[in-house]
Amino acid sequence: MKVTYYGHSCFSVYANGKHILFDPFITPNELAKNINVDEIKADYIFISHAHYDHILDVERIAKNTGAKVLGNFEIYNWLLKNGIENSHPINPGGKFSFDFGTVKCVIAQHPSSFMDGSYGGIACGFVLTTSDGNFYYSGDTALTLDMKLIPEFTKIDFAVLPIGDGLTMGIEEAIKASKLVEADKILGVHYDTFGFITMDHQKALDEFEKAGLHLSLPKIGDTIEL
């Protein structure tokens, strides 16, 4: 599958002829200053939780593209209040089918609140099954044994995991998570955007390689095959 990285935790997967975007946070990210947010294609947008660094560009992209936006029930209500009527609720444990395939919502261990401090519902991850392949996006999360359940339901081709430490998993925990979900190809996200999550890229690549795993750290704007 073709995966495009837009910085922080924002990435897009092209699967079964659809552009599936996750956690759009681009315009405030200095590292993504060369990305034109109005040129981003999206048929679906998934929101893992309500923190500003995962939702700030969702209104703009959704209104530009007409994409269907999915998030937990609190995010769903927030979307409706902000004029995004093409939205759909999904909570952990839930599964829905769309024209790209299926999505199952799973637990993430992380807080969630909107920019005004109001409750943002439970943080989530997503497991997508498509005719082009399957993948797991953990969202912002700590390492959790719940990840062992992922391969019991779906054999995944790659996983997207936060590796910047501090606010989410770091390198060591992400390696353990990769083994729990039985993925040997990993896209690393949620690093370098802020001073407290800067990361030694070469160390991350070396540690994953030592563990027999392939870590991808594409440049912002690059498209890779996973």
Characteristic key phrases:
226 residues, seven-stranded mixed beta sheet, 6 helices, 20% helix
Overall description:
With 226 residues, the protein is of the alpha/beta class. The protein has one domain (2-225): Ribonuclease Z/Hydroxyacylglutathione hydrolase-like (Metallo-beta-lactamase, Chain A, 4-Layer Sandwich), CATH 3.60.15.10. Helix content is 20%, strand content 28%. It is built from six helices and 14 strands. The strands form two sheets. A seven-stranded mixed β-sheet has the order 6-5-4-3-2-1-14, covered by helices on one side. A hairpin with a 2-residue loop joins strand 7 and strand 8 (101-107). It starts with a strand and ends with a strand. The model has no long low-confidence stretch (mean pLDDT 97).
How do the strands and helices of this protein lay out in sequence?
Elements lengths: L1 E4 L5 E5 L2 E5 L21 E3 L5 H4 L2 H8 L2 E4 L1 H9 L5 E3 L5 E4 L2 E7 L16 E7 L2 E5 L12 H4 L4 E5 L8 H10 L4 E5 L11 H10 L3 E3 L6 E3 L1
Parallel strand pairs: 3-4, 4-5, 5-6, 10-11, 11-12, 12-13
Antiparallel strand pairs: 1-2, 1-14, 2-3, 7-8, 8-9, 9-10
InterPro entries: Metallo-B-lactamas, RibonucZ/Hydroxyglut_hydro, UPF0173_UPF0282_UlaG_hydrolase
Organism: Flavobacterium fluviale
Pfam family, one: Lactamase_B_3
